[in-house]
Design brief:
0% helix; globular; mainly beta; single chain; four-stranded parallel β-sheet; five-stranded parallel β-sheet; 171 residues
Length: 171
């Protein structure tokens, strides 16, 4: 367990990479560096409550993550930030201005069943789940959603079904 009460500007690249027995990290930062928690297979919560940027592979291989909340402050997620998070079943997105700059998505999250968007969000971010490897059924929820961003769910060959909100005006 890692605990630090003061906020950090940055959790650096590779800061906790490979700390396989790390279960909890009560440290928050504006920027979570590349591979910062990669391979932390017992980590049960992503320390991103104040994050604005999450770099590539920051949480890759964190197989014990089952739910992640993207805070309102989050504005950018780099490629494969959650790649290989095989236990991730739910994403809650509170971030209204979220971008996926490299069009590669958050990574392979095959067990994902639900992605919920806060009521003030009207567009699913472009490429958010591109190539996520979703296997099965995905429910997209959010009463304010009217538009799906470009490539939001592209390249998910194993996805059998997707449930979208009734208010969508553009796909």
């Amino acid at each position: 367990k890692v605990t630090y009460t003061q906020p950090f500007e940055t959790i650096g690249d590779d800061a906790f990479n490979g700390c396989a027995d790390l279960t909890e990290c009560a440290v928050n930062a504006v920027l979570v560096g590349a591979n910062a928690f990669a391979g932390c297979v017992k980590l049960t919560a992503a320390p991103i409550a104040s994050a604005e940027v999450i770099r590539e592979n920051a949480f890759s291989g964190c197989t014990s993550l089952s739910e992640v909340t993207f805070p309102k402050s989050l504005r950018e997620i780099s490629a494969n930030a959650f790649d290989g998070c095989s236990g991730l079943k739910k994403i809650v997105c509170e971030a209204a201005k979220l971008t996926i700059p490299d069009k590669k998505g958050i990574g392979r999250v095959p067990a994902l069943e639900e992605i919920f968007f806060a009521n003030d969000i009207n567009e699913v971010p472009a490429y958010i789940l591109c190539g996520a490897g979703i296997e099965g059924v995905l429910a997209v929820k959010g009463s304010g959603l009217t538009t799906l961003g470009t490539g939001a769910f592209s390249m998910n060959v194993g996805m059998r079904s997707i449930t979208l909100p009734d208010r969508l005006e553009a796909i």
